[in-house]
Specification:
By secondary structure, this protein is α+β, with helices and mostly antiparallel strands. It folds into two domains: 4-119, no CATH class; 125-261, Orthogonal Bundle (Transferase(Phosphotransferase), domain 1), CATH 1.10.510. The protein has nine helices and nine strands. It has helices at residues 20-36, 60-72, 78-91, 127-133, 138-154, 196-204, 207-210, 215-229, 236-256; strands spanning 4-8, 11-17, 40-46, 49-57, 99-107, 110-119, 125-126, 167-169, 179-181. It has a six-stranded antiparallel sheet, with helices on both faces. A three-stranded antiparallel sheet has the order 7-8-9. Helix 5 (138-154) runs parallel beside helix 8.
């Protein structure tokens, strides 16, 4: 459905949703969260079953920055952009967290709160947790991951936040596969500041911790093969150099701001990918 505008004493809520019923429920939810000014990613009961709500207030410089980007550059705010990106991927048969609604509350011309509601993906865990925990099924999951990332890049979508925490793995015996993409707000199908090498750099940043033996090379080779199978081949050596540069750049960010590590050790600088 198209854009909805809901007026309240708190401001004007601009909302996109799967349908009108979902939009009404999400609007009430978003206005309540905005009135409390809370930042949260929480599981909630919703219209057709369990869902996830992700919302945060926008204050000070963040409100001004997003307001300028929205008004002058006609760019969506992150949660609305994620709604559109997840829908774009779903329409091309990628498995994603199904987007239900997203909204931004404006007050005095500036965005003050944003949120996204997606359907819950049951029985899934992050790729990071899967690789830490599992001995069985790794080859199958990594092969599917390489195919899906290769297909995603071949159709022109760059995720830009493709860390293992932003990929879910479903239990086996799923007809459509086991890989699910989430948190797709940074990138999109249009021209991006970062390209496929950045996505692979995100994926391989913590490779020494998560991947074993020949798994990094097999994952990279399977990705290159997937690009070729889609008719969008890449030159493997050039790509590998670009991935290594991207990984070093991402590592420098962690070195400059250790808070991003959340107490985890800094990934090794050199790694024979």
């Amino acid at each position: 459905m198209g854009l909805l505008r809901l007026r309240s004493r708190a401001g004007v809520l601009r909302l996109v949703a799967r349908d009108s019923r979902t939009g009404e429920a999400a609007g009430d939810l978003g206005l309540a969260a905005a009135s409390e000014g809370r930042s949260a990613t929480v599981a909630i009961p919703f219209v057709d079953g369990p869902a996830w709500f992700k919302g945060e207030p926008l204050r000070g410089k963040a409100a001004w920055r997003h307001g300028v980007r929205s008004r002058l550059l006609r760019l969506h705010l992150p949660r609305v952009n994620e709604f559109h990106n997840l829908g774009w991927l779903a329409r091309r048969s990628f498995q994603v967290a199904p987007p239900l609604a997203a909204g931004v509350l404006f007050r005095a011309g500036l965005p003050r709160y944003q949120f996204l509601v997606t359907s819950e993906i049951r029985d899934a865990r992050t790729l990071r947790q899967f690789l830490v925990d599992e001995e069985i099924g790794r080859e199958e999951v990594l092969a599917e991951l390489a195919r899906e990332i290769g297909r995603m890049h071949a159709v022109g979508f760059v995720h830009r936040d493709l860390f293992p925490r932003n990929v879910l793995v479903l239990p086996p015996r799923r007809a459509r596969g086991r890989i699910v993409f989430i948190d797709a707000w940074r990138g999109g199908p249009r021209s991006q500041l970062r390209g496929p090498a950045h996505d692979l750099g995100c994926l391989f940043l913590h490779g020494p911790e998560l991947l074993r033996g020949e798994e990094p090379a097999l994952l990279f080779d399977a990705y290159v093969s997937a690009r070729g199978a889609q008719g969008r081949g890449v030159e493997a050596r050039s790509l590998l150099r670009a991935v290594r540069r991207a990984r070093r750049r991402l590592r420098r960010r962690l070195e400059d701001d250790p808070r991003r590590l959340g107490g985890a050790p800094l990934p090794p600088l050199e790694w024979s990918l």
